[in-house]
Amino acid sequence: MTARATDARWLDAAARLSMRARPISYPNPGVGCIIVKHGKVVGRGWTAAGGRPHAEAAALHQAGEKARGATAYVTLEPCAHRSLRGPACSDLLVEAGIARVVAGVEDPDPRTAGNGLARLREAGIETALLASPAAEASLAGYLMRARQRRPHVTMKIAMSLDGCIAMASGESQWITGDVARAHVHARRAGADAILVGGGTWRSDKPRLDVRLPGLEQRSPQRAVLTRGVPPHGVKVINTPEQIETLDAFYLYVEAGANIAASFLSADLVDRLETYRAPIVIGNGYAAVGDIGLGALADAHGRWALEERRQLGSDSFEAYSRLRQK
Length: 325
Known about the structure:
Elements: H1 3-18, E1 32-37, E2 40-46, H2 55-63, E3 71-76, H3 89-96, E4 100-105, H4 115-122, E5 126-129, H5 133-138, H6 140-148, E6 152-159, E7 164-167, H7 178-189, E8 193-197, H8 198-204, E9 221-225, E10 235-237, E11 250-254, H9 257-265, E12 271-276, E13 284-286, E14 303-311, E15 314-321
Parallel strand pairs: 3-4, 4-5, 6-11, 6-12, 8-9, 8-11, 9-10
Antiparallel strand pairs: 1-2, 1-3, 7-13, 12-15, 14-15
Helix pairs in contact: 3-4
């Protein structure tokens, strides 16, 4: 294995580790750090609840003296700015005697933005910024907020084989089975906020919480897209574009046909997750309303399959939006 391939493998591992920080690290990004010496892990960490300590600080604490002369793999460039909440991670890495730092993404925060790696180089530490798709994906919400001023949006649709989300009578509980619904709750637990439309809120009165043992405290903040009377204790937005006002990196949208159409029309969906039950409804409600598509050719080249799995009798597929860099 080449040195570059080895670096990429450790960054992939750090990216997987960082998922333990999502979404509890908010308002800080969920970062993963692995410290390796002579091919063995001597320390690992991820951003703690509320954002501190940072991943590097946690990994260095675990490594102790073994950090001296080691390589630190971190998904996001180590921060360069000091704050009242803690020291800069670049300073901590210097003090610990780290010999080399490999980062997967340059921090878009102007307080760091290249300065973290520069500080390390000034201290004689070898640095590398290795483009890492895994690290980039693990920081999707943070990067979307920094670059587009909005949360990363995942839209979930549960439907029948013929693309219906409800009977003609409006009956929709339950299209999918227990395993798929548990998977949805796990996906909710990874979001900062969850949104439904006003119609769904009024007709179904959804709890929009996480009901998995041990993860109940991970229930996201609730939001409703409506022009009606704001529900008590729930954030209300009037248009899809107003998601930028949500205090979130990751937004999970449980879409009815109109909400799905409005978000897709506005091109605000970054990940589309579908749950398909082995049933045929026939004359029911379509999963997605009119999105203003002018020609069939315009529908192609927009989505790429990321994941596919079986959940009991239901099938799950996840697609990422293909965008020009």
